[in-house]
Amino acid sequence: MTSKLSVRHLIDFKKVRSIAIFIFPDVEELDFVGVYEVLGNTSRMIEEGTFKLDRTLHVDLLATKSIVSCRNGLKVVPDKVSSDFTSYDALIIPGGRGIRPLMKDSSFLQRLRLFAQDHLTCSVCTGSLLLGAAGILKGKRALTHHWYLTELKAYAEPAAGRVHVDDNVITSAGISSSIDLGLKLLEILYDESIARKVAERLELPTTYYKELKRLAQN
Fold first, then answer.
1. pLDDT for the residue numbered 7
2. CATH value at residue 39
3. What residues make up the domain containing 188?
4. How many domains does the chain contain in total?
5. What is the DSSP letter of 96?
6. What is the dihedral of CA 128, 133, 138, 144, to 10 degrees?
7. Is residue 152 part of a domain?
8. What does R_g of the chain's alpha carbons equal in angstroms?
9. Strand partners, 169
């Protein structure tokens, strides 16, 4: 099942430079740290001269609180205390118990829905349920943590694999797939060779990237 009206032609992914990761109380730590680590290493490798690229990625953590208490007790200081992500080129929504209040926040859902109309919008784990509540997954296939597949079906047809791209919306499966999302973003925003080199820097198993590609093709 795919979206009848594509908005991808409105977005030049190669021009994406700024990415917001919106976090909230009870967010699952690895949901946002995994993709942050991948993207952060990319920028550092560009600065080091490992990659000869004409643009770096700027990634900010956004939250409505000055200190965010995560699901397992980690406390995080965001880059910006704000829920306004409209100035960014792309947005990542992680998962965790904290999505529940946001799923009932009509103002936040409206901003999220408007943003996704012409921006790259991503989720990790149960973050896709928040996209679903905002109406972003209508007519699309998507992923979430396997415990929540039944709930996801209210919004979208479940996809296979660990990362799924549907038009301008990218969803990933459970917690550790945050790393997979980061690598997929590098493929889309740069190319596969960049993603592979970052995977090597992170010392992912040599078969990891090959297996990730296989799952994406199924």
1. 59
2. 3.40.50.880
3. 15-217
4. 1
5. B
6. 20
7. yes
8. 16
9. 121, 166
Q: Give pLDDT, residue 106.
A: 97
Establish whether 70 is a catalytic residue.
no
Residue 41's identity, in one-letter code, is: N
The answer to whether position 9 is within a domain reads no
Select from 118, 121, 161, 125 the least CA-distant residue to 137.
Answer: 121
Cα 151 → chain centroid? 19
Whose tokens are 């992914």? That residue is 13
* Catalytic pick among 68, 124, 125, 173: 125
Q: Is residue 206 part of a domain?
A: yes
Strand 68-69 and strand 75-76: the pairing is: antiparallel
What residue type is assigned to position 16 of the chain?
A: V
What is the model's pTM? Answer: 0.91
| Spans of the chain, pLDDT less than 70 | 1-10, 206, 212-213, 215-218
Q: Structure tokens of 196? A: 């592979």
Amino acid at the residue 112: L
Residue type for position 37? E
**Matching residue, tokens 């700024």:** 18
Place of tokens 């680590």: 37
Q: What is the pLDDT of residue 142?
A: 98
Question: Is 5 inside any structural domain?
Answer: no
pLDDT for the residue numbered 4: 45
Tokens 């699901």 belong to residue: 71
- The whole-angstrom separation of Cα 148 and Cα 174 is 10
Report yes or no: 33 and 94 within 8 Å, Cβ to Cβ: no
Give me the pLDDT at residue 2, please. Answer: 40
Residues 51, 200 contacting (CB under 8 angstroms): no
